[in-house]
Give the backbone structure.
Amino acid sequence: MFALPRTATAPFCPSEVKGSVAVAPGLPFHKKLLRYAGPGLLVSVGYMDPGNWATDIEAGSRFGYGLLFVVLLASLAAMLLQTLCVRLGIVAQKDLARLCREQYSPAVNRFLWLGAELAIVACDLAEVLGSALALHLLLGVSVPVGIAITAFDTVLVLGLQGAGFRRVEAIVLGLVATIAGCFVAELALSQPVWADVAIGFVPSLQRLQQPGALYLAIGIVGATVMPHNLYLHTSIVQTRRIAPTEAGRREAVRWCTLDALVSLSLALLVNAAILVLAASAFNTSGHREVSDIADAYHLIEPVVGSALAASLFAIALLASGQSSTFTGTIAGQIVMEGFLDLKIPCWQRRLLTRALALVPAFLGVWWLGDAGIGKLLVLSQVVLSFQLPFAIWPLVRFTSSRPLMGAYANGPVLKLCAWGVFGVVSVANVWLVAQVFA
């Protein structure tokens, strides 16, 4: 794992890190690459959190490699939206939440703020449940005890106060590398049929006509694009201090877009790897009804024939849950400062978000038992799905505004693609919510 370059340390709350990472003109290619790398990585962890695992596992166990193209298309949609975030943050020099406060009425602003806060809590709920389940599988502690242990990750945030934004990016890099490394080893042990994997990436309406395939496909779309990532990305791209010229702005847009595309490509590979693992380990062995993360863990050892496979699966799950801890804290600060112009210490924000997530986690496990984790994870994704269109709409609207964006405003083709993504994601999420509550 490579080390990120050192910069002057600064706390990682959004209002305190703007322009904290200097990018001097004339840097060599490799140094410039490392200076700009980071924001995309923080965003990418939201695309591989425990909330995505259940849909990918069920899709792989039931339909083999057939729905890999859905993972690909959902990831491409996410890349489009995140590149719009890059342009908005760098060109407008304001994050999405702050622009909403400036452009919309107080009533609309409060509605958007409450929805964004609910989405952040729902995402944190998935992190709590995923981390607690991983601790249960690795250490044998009960799920409620695992949930209680996750409450102490606020200590990590406290310990990082003043450590610097780049330090946070480096820690997230380590966790993401852990997830990727575990799945590389998992795929080597499960030995998928790579020719069938390649065919799975080719779009096919015929595969969606299989019973239950469309529902799972929409679930994958709904679980992939995270609304809080749109607010997060528009802010953290401003951590790079660039030359105050048109050339400097153009260079920043280009490099930060590359950072986002590379990082989200990694997230695509991780999500695809989860589905491929489920397909090669479960579908081909006749276990085609695996939809629960715990069931997948218990089945993977006897099916693959290696105890290491199960351990790697649980370690990746733990890293997945913990990696989103930092980004959830930062996103919460951005939303609160942007919509309300209210600033509180990061540790207080983290404590508030985690407390709100712990309550439904404890109540859900107490009421439904350990088997309720899967249902709670689905519920968290439904909440995120419901909020998503309300984050995409202002993003596309602002990035299409020539008075705000100037020459960087969305052109006709980009505008058509962006509104197309909004329409597809909105319809898919409405349908998914309707099916869950039907």
